[in-house]
Amino acid sequence: MARAFVAGPNFSGRSAHLMARLRGRAPGAAFFIGPYAEAALSGLSSTVSDEIEIYRAGSRPTRPVFSPIDFAAYAARKPPTLSGGEQVLLALHCFSLSRYRTIGIDTALEQLDPANRAQALAYLSQDEAQGFDVELIDNRPVSGWPTITLPGSGDFACDLAAATATLQNRAAPTITIERLSFRYSKSRDIFTGAKLTLAPGCAYRLTGPNGAGKTTLFKLLAGVLAPSSGTLALDGAPYAPWRAGNRLFAFATQNPDHQWCGTTLGEDATRRRKALARHGIVAPTDTAIAALAACLGAPSLDAHLYELPLAARKRLSWLWPLSGTLPWIMLDEPTVGQDIAIRAAMAAAIARVCACGHGVMFVTHDEEFATLIEHRVLRLENGTITA
Amino acid sequence: MTPNGAIVFGLLVIGGAVVARDLPSLAIVLALALIFGLGSGRRIVMALGWSIAIVAPLAGFMGLVWVGIVGGAPDEIGAGTEGSRAAAAAYVALISLRLFAIAFVVQATFLRFADMTPLQFVRRLSMPALAKKLVVLTLSLIETILYAIDRARTALIAAGIVTRRPSPRNLRNGWLLVQTVWLTVVTIAIGRTRDKWPTEETLALIDGTLADATPRRLTAIDVAWMVVALGSLALAVGMR
User: Fold this and answer.
1) Are B108 and B44 in contact (CB under 8 A)?
2) Does the pLDDT of residue B239 top 70, yes or no?
3) For residue A223, what is the DSSP state?
4) What distance in Å separates the CA atoms of residue A213 and residue A197, rounded to the nearest whole number?
5) Computed from CA positions of residues A358, A359, A363, A367, in that sequence, does the dihedral angle turn out positive or negative?
6) How far apart are CA A100 and CA B39, in angstroms?
């Protein structure tokens, strides 16, 4: 039994290499965890307990069970409602209960918080003792694993320095959050009376374990969710994006495919421009958008988004945040699926955005990336936000 | 009660509701559905609420058209007799109660098994393996669509293209939501069928999960409910 770490920059063909290796085995011999939920979970279950049941090989597991969180407490939840990290943990849990002798993981471990990631890697390192093979793609260093390194192709070249070079100075408002409470239907409290003040010109990193509510806070601030109680204010003036719409945050989601408003970048830009105009916000012209998209590696505004590789789509998801159109930006796991060179450039871009007077909120489980950015930590735990 | 028994009962009640031509016969069918629903305990309240929510808009619209504007029942118009608002109201009540009975009994049937997960429910059904797999795939598609709706809505709200609450903007841009949902569904389906399922042979894997070791025959309770449902169906036919 063996493990292999497939290394290389983005667009070096790592995913294709991994799939070829997995399919080279006997049919149905390999378990696969893709970069996002659609390729991490079976999609055949309506609840977490059903997902586990599908993969459970029998009443007695054939190897130690990987169970970093109490899945019994999640039994009735719909798998897509779990956070990205929780979905990866669930997939690993299912593998540990299954009869599969091989597991292939395509950058999914990047969504795990440091503690869970360490546990996952420790579990996968038992390959010889437990009799399974592991094929892993990851953009963060994994020490002690036999490595296969693939050369880069140079496709979709991304220049984040050029993308942020034309950012104009602006004075973003101070955000004040008072007594914010929120819970999902039939679920535990995510926030209970949370208080927070966010000053412009700073980068704030939301931290907390998988499922603490980091993405939920982003959705509340973007007006996608409405709090059960609490207020928001911009420079002291009341602001309720869940009623009036979002005119504050440019939001880059963890999975880039969660934010497209069109089939092409051009269509997406046209629709967003119209929506922003309702708030009196002037969005960049098509020419400016095309120039910015080119810096992010887009071949043209007319390219079908889903025909681009996932890592390229992830970079294009930064287009609106880096355009300077809105005063605050939110980046949810910006480095997931991105190689080391892009992570360093992204850190520099965030610094540039802050220097121009914008405010930045970001979530990352990539400690190395976080150390590259001057930031303040906001800790989410037990329904509160601690600065 | 077994899932098969409950489904047969539900189909018989739906049949009774469809053939019932007047309010008394429909009342019998409805009473039977309500008694059956009591077996689900408190959840019955939610089922009643949903059934009312489904039927109320149609009932309101039909009331407006037939009672308010036409002022007569379709039978009266067909017979060329002078119409009355009372007959129109009875007609609207019959159609609305029929729809209510159907909506309610469908929920009541599945609420009987609310303690089971969807996979456990399908496993306990007595039907060919292929049919079970098709049921699971259908449920999977429904879940995918629901997830895609949530995902597309999130994207469009965050971009300010639609709003969280009902608004004229949503009416104008509703088609964008539909387009985004279908694009999302197709993308998710491609992601699964290209990578996850062929690598794992996930669809073959669920054969074992859906196989029920113990054959499930209809129980005495199943038969009792089915006989009562058949009785109400016969009554509804007889009263035509």
Assistant:
1) yes
2) no
3) T
4) 18
5) positive
6) 42
Q: Could you report the per-residue pLDDT of B161-170, keeping only the tens digit for each? A: 999 988 888 9
Contacts made by residues A288-294, CB under 8 angstroms, sequence distance 24+ = A288/A323, A289/A265, A289/A319, A289/A323, A292/A163, A292/A319, A292/A322, A292/A323, A293/A265, A293/A319
User: Which residues of B are less than 8 Å from A23 in CB distance?
Assistant: 198-199
Judge whether B138 is closer than 8 Å to chain A, CB to CB.
no
Q: Please name the residue of chain A whose CA is at the shortest distance from the CA of residue B120.
A: A50
DSSP type of residue B162: S
Residue A19: what pLDDT? Answer: 92
pLDDT reported for residue A230 = 94
Q: Are B195 and A34 an interchain contact pair (Cβ–Cβ within 8 Å)?
A: yes
Residue of A38, A43, A50 lying closest to B117 (CB–CB): A50
Taking the C-alpha atoms of residue B199 and residue A288, their distance in angstroms, rounded to an integer, is: 42
Is B196's CB within 8 Å of A42's CB? yes
Give the mean model confidence (pLDDT) for residues B125-133.
90
**Which residues of B fall within a CB distance of 8 Å from A38?**
187-188, 191-192, 196
Give residue A185's pLDDT: 79
* A147-173 exposure pattern, b = at least 16 Cβ within 10 A, e = fewer: ebebeeeeebebebeebbeebeeeebb
Task: Please list every residue in chain B whose beta carbon sits closer than 8 Å to the beta carbon of residue A306.
Answer: 183, 187
Q: Are B225 and B5 in contact (CB under 8 A)?
A: yes
* Positive or negative: CA dihedral B161, B162, B163, B169: positive
Residues of chain A positioned with their CB less than 8 A from the CB of B192: 38-39, 43
C-alpha B216/C-alpha B23 separation (Å) is: 37
pLDDT of B74 above 70? yes
CB A294 within 8 A of CB A284: no
Q: Distance (Å, rounded) from C-alpha A146 to C-alpha A135? A: 10
Distance CA A107, CA A85 (A): 12
**Which range has the worst mean pLDDT, A228-237, A317-326, B107-116?**
B107-116
Site from B124, B149, B161, B175 to mutate, A interface, most A CB atoms within 10 angstroms: B161
Mark yes or no for CB contact B200/A31 under 8 Å: yes
Contact between A254 and A314 under an 8 Å Cβ cutoff? The reply is: no
Contacting residues of B for A42, CB less than 8 Å apart: 196-197, 200, 202
Helix A48-55 × helix A84-97 angle, to 10°: 30
Average pLDDT score over residue span A229-258: 93
Q: Give Rg (Cα) of chain B.
A: 23
Q: What is the pLDDT of residue A82?
A: 87
Q: Select from B92, B106, B100 the least CA-distant residue to B49.
A: B100
**Residue A355, SS3?**
helix
Is the predicted pLDDT of residue A205 greater than 80, yes or no?
A: yes
pLDDT digits (tens, 9 = 90+) for A27-83: 888 999 998 767 789 999 999 999 999 998 776 778 899 999 999 989 988 898 888
Cα separation, A235 vs A357, in Å, equals: 14
B174 vs A: CB within 8 A: no
Q: Determine whether the interchain pair A278/B195 forms a contact, defined as Cβ–Cβ distance below 8 Å.
A: no
Chain A interface, mutation test: which of B170, B181, B199, most A Cβ atoms within 10 Å? B199
Question: How distant is the Cα of B115 from the closest Cα of chain A, in angstroms?
Answer: 10
